[in-house]
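Would you mind writing out the residues of a protein together with its fold in token form for me to study?
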Amino acid sequence: MSTQILQTPQSSLGPDASATMLLLEQILRPIIKLFMLTFRVTYPAMDRVIKSLFIDIALEEAAKQDPKSEPSMGTLAYFTGISPHLCRQTFDELVERERPPGYVDTSEVCPESKVLDIWANDPMWQDDDGNPMLLPTSGKYNSRTLQTLVRKHVDNIAYGQVVDSLIDAGCVTFVRHNGKRCLKMKKEAFIPVDGQTDQLLMASAQSIRHLLQTFIFNLENPDLAPKNNFFQQERYLRCVRPDQLPALRASMKDLLRKQADDCIAPLEQFEDGPETNESIHAGVGYYYFEDSGWGRYETLTA
């Protein structure tokens, strides 16, 4: 097997529109798959996050071009392709309400979060003490059941799917009440992953962000290549049999762990604490990857 080297392209010719969209699809597909399937972030929630980020980035760019003036909605519409009305709406949320970019109310993330929020806070679904009431899964039309709650407040979702998801996440449990089998709320927050998975997500998000920043820096500073740009290379094998993967993974893990340990001392030579607003975070990342999509994306590396 021959080892291939994938380096940052030095060509000044940018990709055409179709290649750009294919590149965007490559980046977004694993991200959407992760958040949709693992963290239950729905399209409407993702749409709100992306829209607010478009506006926030446009605000940053407009401020660079004219630091003394507030950008017009027409300027934001030009940068983003979003209508001036929606630009104003999002701008108000970001600036006047001081919401961070990507802010989405917890109840809007997915159907499960919305159901729990209504169940916990709407008096119609509370008992005499103001606590979430015990709910039968189903019953007469418009009776106070989880089926009714889902039907009234969540579009096009079968209540059985919501029940299964809430049980799997440990949000509800079955109890007996007045001879009926009911659901009792155990926790108001829908968190479909455990704490360890959440920590892994945070670490992975940092790595993805750093890798993209390296790519963007090299793309925006072609005059620095090849001596002074950020180092970016990959080594990969094109033909690995599945039965060889466990041994390869173990070997690469040992190698990368050693290299990561060896990198600590050289990095610490440049440590200049304490941290201030002008401090820059700098470092290197180590990761191993497997990808079965070579043929599909071959046009991008041709």
Observations:
- The beta strands are 3-7, 135-136, 172-177, 180-185, 233-237.
